Amino acid sequence: MAENIRQLPIGVQSFEKLRQGGYIYVDKTRYVYNLVHSAGQYFLSRPRRFGKSLFLSTLAAYWEGRKELFEGLAIEEMEKGNKEAWQPYPVFYFDFNGENYQHDTALEDVLDKHLREWEAIYGCQAQGTLSGRFQKLLITAAEKTGRRCVVLVDEYDKPLLEVLEKDELEEHNKAVFKGFFGTLKSYDKYLQFVFITGVTKFSKVSIFSDLNQLNDISLYQKYAGICGITEAELAKAFAPEIEELAHQLGLSRDSCLAKLKKMYDGYHFHPQGEGIYNPFSLLKAFDERNLGAYWFATGTPTFLVRRLKTMHFDVRQFTQKTLETNDRILSDYRTDNPNPLPLLYQTGYLTIVDYDPQARLYTLGFPNEEVKYGFLESLLPEYTPEAGSGNGKDIFALRRRLLAGDTDGMREILTALFASIPYTSNDAPFEHYFQSVLYMVFTLLDQFVQCEVHSSRGRADCIVETEQFVYIFEFKVDKPAQEALQQIEDKGYAAPFAADPRQVFKIGVSFDSEKRSLAEWLVNI
Questions:
Q1: Which among 48, 46, 43, 36 is positioned nearest to 91, based on CA atoms?
Q2: What is the pLDDT of residue 454?
Q3: Which residue of 69, 163, 316, 408 has the fewest CB atoms within a 10 Å radius of its CB?
């Protein structure tokens, strides 16, 4: 096949660079048109690496009057006949990416740097408080240009997310924001347009409590596709890349699309919004011609997995469709909030999978396989350190034993995993650990073999199927393994496989809660 010479915009956050460099562009300018002609003040929350910075750069180019960058795009046609279009406005673009906010005055230093650049442009003196200097800039820019100002804020919450576990510094940075961006409320007459992006919406930060006119469009259906890539956009913009990836993987085009969908699609930012693909992972998959966990690898959710373990969160809820919340809670993150769902949703580890319009409740779940398996792989070692040690006692070793029909080897690995569970006085009851570890282990195995974990009565606790074998597991705590085996027989759990040519293993497992270990393992064939 011909070598792909089209440029994929991996990591490109500048609209100017993207357009002048000949990169592939998924046209989002209809959203730009709708927003700028509403001339409001907006907030948008989306997960990291989802295209927020590129969209903000696109807005900046529009307000700077860079018409040449929009040739051939939807907005060019939409603005035809509009004499006010493409007029340059004074743009103040705050970019909080790429900085280290771990020291006391880091946020003030970044703000000062931005202000000094603009003060040089508009002839203002760098005197007074940061907020006072910003106020002076807004007035001076509006007076000198005869046009109101545009304020764009990219990743406002990075200085807060980076210091989540440093309470004093987090409160300090919140106070800096309160003083600085509170300016926007008092100087509304000098503002044409405001757009703020972030991963999270910290409810107690003054950006939101003081700016009551700020319109949060994060859950609006008409803006559900503002970042990321829809299925239609994927098919239209990346047809050659899809063909090349399918060829590399030895798949038909349709089979390749199905795998891309399972791996990277599934984000929903409105109950009726169309599914959104993770743009970073999709571009990396096309570039490397492989289906890797690219987005997940760029940032391990250490803070989140520790919090879930500390609060004894029932991880089985992730795939049982029992995680329910409403829109107020979903858009409200506080660091002292015991509910982890807002942060899990806003950071992209959970998404909307269902909605009850009568109760106005959202059901949350993993968006796709990349996130599901990546998150559980990060979480499992918090519960059982041996799981991530690569010492032959991990998920991959368990898979090899399953494929070989080696039940003794499976017992050894599960015994080792449970033996490595740390114990402290603050830990949850053993039953919670036992259920959580089993759920994660067998859910992760589902990447390689067909595996169903059940929690309802009348079904086996777990059924694993390979090409040659079927394993039916029943687990008990502080009860004999023989009782588990007898339940498999009495309930007829093996009946669906009576005519199956594969060998069926019935496995009864008993755990000792006092010793916090796997106590008995009985196998019937």
A1: 36
A2: 73
A3: 408
Instruction: Indicate if the pLDDT at residue 15 is higher than 90.
Output: yes
Which residue, chain included where needed, has tokens 């020291």? 103
- Calculate what percentage of the chain has a pLDDT beyond 70: 94
Of 146-155, 161-170, 247-256, the poorest mean pLDDT is in: 161-170
DSSP conformation letters of 95-157: E-TT----STTHHHHHHHHHHHHHHHHHT----S-HHHHHHHHHHHHHHHHSS-EEEEEESTT
> Taking a C-beta distance cutoff of 8 angstroms, is the pair 147, 90 a contact?
yes
CB 475 within 8 A of CB 486: no
Model pLDDT, residue 369: 96
- pLDDT score of 333 more than 90: no
Other C-beta atoms lying within 10 Å of the C-beta of residue 369: 19
DSSP annotation of 3 reads P
With a cut of 80, say whether residue 91 has pLDDT above it: yes
User: What pLDDT score was predicted for residue 207?
Assistant: 65
pTM to 2 decimal places: 0.91
> Is 323:340 a contact under the CB 8 Å cutoff?
no
Q: Where in 433-516 does DSSP place strands (E)?
A: 450-453, 462-465, 469-477, 503-512
* All residues at 6 or more sequence positions from 121 whose CB lies less than 8 Å from its CB, including other chains: none
Buried b (16+ CB within 10 A) or exposed e, 335-358: beeeebbbbbbbbbbbbbbebeee
Q: Taking CA 29 as the corner, what is the angle to CA 23 and CA 33, rounded to the nearest 5 degrees? A: 160
